[in-house]
Amino acid sequence: MAMNSKPLRNIYNVTRLNREVRTILDTGFPLIWLEGELSNLACPASGHWYFSLKDDHAQVRCAMFRTRNRLLRFVPRNGMQVIARAKVGLYEPRGEFQLVIEHLEEAGEGALRQQFEQLKNKLNAQGLFAAEIKKTLPHIPKRIGVITSPTGAAIHDVLTTLKRRFASLEIIIYPVNVQGKTAAADIATTIQLADKRKECDVLLLTRGGGSLEDLWSFNEEVVAQAIFNCAIPLVSAIGHDIDFTIADFVADIRAATPTAAAELVSPDTKHWSQQFSGFQKRLIQLITNSLSQKQVRIDQVTKNIVHPKHYIEETSQRVDELLYRLQNRIKTQVSTKELQLSSLQTRCHAHNPKYKIQVSKQQTIQLFQKIKAAQIHQLDVLKQQFIRNTSILEAVSPLATLNRGYAYVNKVNSNAIIKDITQIESGDELITTVAKGKFSSTVTNKWTED
């Protein structure tokens, strides 16, 4: 049977192809510097930036993630000429060739950046950055020298931090120009002066943040040589934590900020207080143990010796005991007398005429109020009773009867009311009373009802 002589084919899928190409790009290219014009800038809500870098004949897509772009000191715009430090790669999902930007700067800084790198390599080759020549900072400096602008924000941060951490430190400020054409020479001369005068235990070279041009005086070789030749330990704190200058590499220690530099050169009062407290406890313990051992030895030697001091101590102890008892006795008696005095004062207050008058006055007022209330109540009761009795009397009053058309009759000179015909005779003069008035009459006849 004939054998198939065709070779096996290694067939890629798209995912595999893109992944292997990306691996080749990631491993085959180092970080590169690239100059071009920025265009198609997009800044979505994620914080990442996406744009293109182009020249007259080509362009390439770029991505700069927010962890890197937030470190920039300028705001990029379309049409701006920039220099980028980038990693060559491939965006696998779309198979697009792109650069991942690690750093971005305006193209105007390119020449300065090149000078920086050249001087950095030169001084490194001369050994100015060697770790073994770095000087150690003193643990507790007596005096600190600060080389900076006397009007900048850095001096305020440094002085505030030093005062907070160790207020008793002496500080000498060496004023210099930190920016401008003469700044580098001024800084170098001041470092040499501070080193010559030997007034300080440590020097702090600092200024606030700024652009590469603003910080350039600290990238001059004259400043680097002055720092290298300085016998006093020197700490640099130039700009912010993202700013690096030649002075930072030559200095014995580099701090990210002026505040951090002040913390490096100054002891912490709280920390040293804790240290001294620990030393004090250990010393007290050592002395106590030593005294205890000595006392044991003394006790062994004097165990069988009766010394006059023993009797003196016993007598002294007895006196102390009696004094203590006497003091307690006096305190008890004083307390008792105070209680008795308080009781007497209370009793005297109760029998005080003024107090009694005041109490009687209060009682009189209360009784008067009660009597007045009782009188008012009694008057109300009597008034109601009078009204009821009046109503009753009016109901049975002869006047009420008269008002209904009746009358009553009595003889002249007699108040007896005539109720029966037998009480009168013919010729008697009578007085008849009606509701509104009286009239007289004479009896002419009388008769009875059958």
TrEMBL record:
<keyword id="KW-0963">Cytoplasm</keyword>
<keyword id="KW-0378">Hydrolase</keyword>
<dbReference type="InterPro" id="IPR003753">
    <property type="entry name" value="Exonuc_VII_L"/>
</dbReference>
<dbReference type="Pfam" id="PF02601">
    <property type="entry name" value="Exonuc_VII_L"/>
</dbReference>
<dbReference type="GO" id="GO:0008855">
    <property type="term" value="F:exodeoxyribonuclease VII activity"/>
</dbReference>
<protein>
    <submittedName>
        <fullName>Exodeoxyribonuclease VII large subunit</fullName>
        <ecNumber>3.1.11.6</ecNumber>
    </submittedName>
</protein>
<feature type="domain" description="OB-fold nucleic acid binding">
    <location>
        <begin position="12"/>
        <end position="104"/>
    </location>
</feature>
<dbReference type="InterPro" id="IPR025824">
    <property type="entry name" value="OB-fold_nuc-bd_dom"/>
</dbReference>
<dbReference type="InterPro" id="IPR020579">
    <property type="entry name" value="Exonuc_VII_lsu_C"/>
</dbReference>
<dbReference type="GO" id="GO:0003676">
    <property type="term" value="F:nucleic acid binding"/>
</dbReference>
<dbReference type="GO" id="GO:0006308">
    <property type="term" value="P:DNA catabolic process"/>
</dbReference>
<dbReference type="Pfam" id="PF13742">
    <property type="entry name" value="tRNA_anti_2"/>
</dbReference>
<keyword id="KW-0540">Nuclease</keyword>
<keyword id="KW-0269">Exonuclease</keyword>
<feature type="domain" description="Exonuclease VII large subunit C-terminal">
    <location>
        <begin position="128"/>
        <end position="441"/>
    </location>
</feature>
<dbReference type="GO" id="GO:0009318">
    <property type="term" value="C:exodeoxyribonuclease VII complex"/>
</dbReference>
